[in-house]
Amino acid sequence: MDILNALVAFLNFVFIPAAAYGAQLALGALGVTLIYGILRFSNFAHGDSMAFGTAITILVTWGLQALGVSLGPLPTALLALPVGIAATAVLVLATDRAVYRFYRAQRAAPIIFVMASVGVMFVMNGLTRLLIGVDEQRFDDGARFIINVRDFREWTGLSEGLALRSTQALTLVVTVIVCAALFWFLNRTKSGKAMRAYSDNEDLALLSGIDPEKVVRLTWIIAAALMTIAGVLYGLDKSFRPFNYFQILLPIFAAAIVGGLGNPVGAIAGGFLVAFSEVAVTYPWVKVAGYLFPDWQPGGLLQLLGTEYKFAVSFVILIVVLLFRPTGLFRGKSV
Amino acid sequence: MKKLLLATAMGALMAGAAGAEEIKLGMSLGFTGPLESMAPGMKSGAELAMKEVSDSKLLLGGSTVVPVQGDSTCIDAAAATATVERLITAEGVKGIVGGMCSGEAIASLQNVAVPNGIVMISPSATSPALSTIEDNGLFFRTSPSDARQGEVMAEIMMEKGIKNAAITYTNNDYGKGLADAFAASFQEKGGTITVNAAHDDGKADYSAEVAALAAAGGDALVVVGYVDQGGSGVVRAALDTGAFDTFVFPDGMVGQALIDNFGEEINGSFGQNPAAEGEGREKFLEMAKTAGFDGTSAYAAESYDAAALMLLSMAAAKSSDPKVWKDKVMDVANEPGEKIMPGELAKGLEILNGGGDIDYVGASSIEMVGNGETAGVYREVAFDNGEMTVVGYR
């Protein structure tokens, strides 16, 4: 019984939140890594593009809600998601045409692209705020819980409760579907293979008759879809506030770099690694330990770091990985 | 001719000294930020008192009072300092109702108000640190120190049989001050604090903070936070994960927004905020209703009193210069003298103009103690069936 209680406490406070957060980071990191692999720069505007896509999705969701449309137990935002993706795709394609294409034609150094993307970030930052404001928005509807704490306690008779929010389950399911679709696209379709070829060797790809502008466009559209899905899932699960999307840029980059920039498998692994370390390092293990070792009375909370230092964890991982394995765990590119 | 000119000049001077003027009173309140839902009520309260005094035409020979509002943001001390700077130097206010939150109030008081010799009367900054601050007699508050709120909260919890509790506080002067004051008096009464941890406002997700609180455990969670900010976020995460069922809410959390956010989910929780009962409060609520705002909104009554106290002190000192009238605030607020209720400011002004004494009671039963703050009456509230009910006063 005590072992079960320990397991439930672990699931409730560590595993489920970290898994959902990890999936959101993984989707974000996939977008970053894709852009890095094919366009060869770190896109700092990623977080704010996510916020833009989410803001559009929220506005459409509100419209649908006003019309009385709903998906029953699922959030209405899923219906609005394609519109959000389309709007984000249009925005990033326009940005590419207005900003990045110029530097691509010049064959500018990656650092110039990075700096240009910082500028784009600030513009998108302002655009999102003009669109929806700076305040927190909640747009989740439908069923809140799949497993409710009170019901769980009644069913099982355990003293620990377990909660599984529908948005957490949704995040995981959508992430699995999106990843599967992405890998299928990259490995099995002609366009996907063209993208990988372009990523591996630009000149050789050109010689084989691959249209570079088409590859670039495709990359932006896929990245826009990944951004918007990641942003909407994050907003549904937690809450939407433009500033927070700027902040998660840091763990997203940590995840992409830890996994190996340019490597999609690495991005997913990195996302979960960063999320689980953040949660596990700041979680006080005293309760779980109390169930497992009833005779042991630890003095403190068995917490490695205060929750204020959550963000620091991803940087520590980042530094360690860069010191000992600069190309990341899954052998990405390094420029 | 020379004599005539002189006489006219003298006359003009005399008229200038004794005649009517336009007195500007500043309001440095957090119209944006974590307590933005409370600021409009406070502004309406303060303006109600100013209008009452202007309409009476009894202050300093018929002077009118003009409110000037500024945004203190509640959390950004630099922005609040700039706001107060503007109110004093550009607008030329004679006193300021504010600041709203403790950290920003301390910063703007020390950096701007004290060097310029302007009085600030805060309706809502409750940090114990403000009791001992070096203020040259320029700072008062119509709300009690949180040292007292900590005691009251500990008392209520002891009576309900809650012997151990976890505390989460918003990471600023208000949060830390109240959390520490509460922890001290709760432990003194024999309670146990399992954990006393900070949370930062403006985060998307508080599951990590709640996980830490849950691991430490406790019969109740004391949420020393802001209802429009992290406080609600922590409660949300705690409810979702089933970490706590009973919450204790101090003043920053008690508000309509809490009911709107959580409804029946917080049944069985309770809290307290400074709010006096009695004749003065009833009267204020009526006046607020007539003026078209909700007088029960947190700190609205205290704001009315802050503005009223300033204007009455000016009448008592026969000057709108804050360096002069600051010495009269305590006299006006305390005995001896005729008791003045809200809506009776004209009567108070008349007595003061005649050289008499008044004891301003106002909407929140003002009784100032030693360092220019009120002794404090708290309203105990309980949450049941998705409603907030007033249990009693302490």
TrEMBL record, chain A:
Organism: Paracoccus benzoatiresistens
Residue ranges of the TM segments: 6-39, 51-71, 77-99, 111-132, 169-186, 215-236, 242-261, 268-286, 306-324
Subcellular locations according to the entry: Cell membrane
Keywords associated with the record: Amino-acid transport, Cell inner membrane, Cell membrane, Membrane, Transmembrane, Transmembrane helix, Transport
Membrane topology, from the record: Multi-pass membrane protein
Lineage start: Bacteria, Pseudomonadati, Pseudomonadota, Alphaproteobacteria, Rhodobacterales
The protein's name in its UniProt record: Branched-chain amino acid ABC transporter permease
Family named by the database record: Belongs to the binding-protein-dependent transport system permease family. LivHM subfamily.
CDD domains: TM_PBP1_LivH_like
InterPro entries membership: ABC_transp_permease (IPR001851), BCAA_transport_permease (IPR052157)
Keyword rRNA-binding (UniProt): no
From TrEMBL, chain B:
Protein origin, superkingdom: Bacteria
Keywords noted in UniProt: Amino-acid transport, Signal, Transport
InterPro entries found in the cross-reference section: BCAA_transport, Leu-bd, Peripla_BP_I
Occurrences of domain Leucine-binding protein (ranges): 22-322
Keyword Signal found: yes
Record-linked SUPFAM superfamilies: Periplasmic binding protein-like I
Region forming the signal peptide: 1-20
Family statement: Belongs to the leucine-binding protein family.
Protein name: ABC transporter substrate-binding protein
Protein source organism: Paracoccus benzoatiresistens
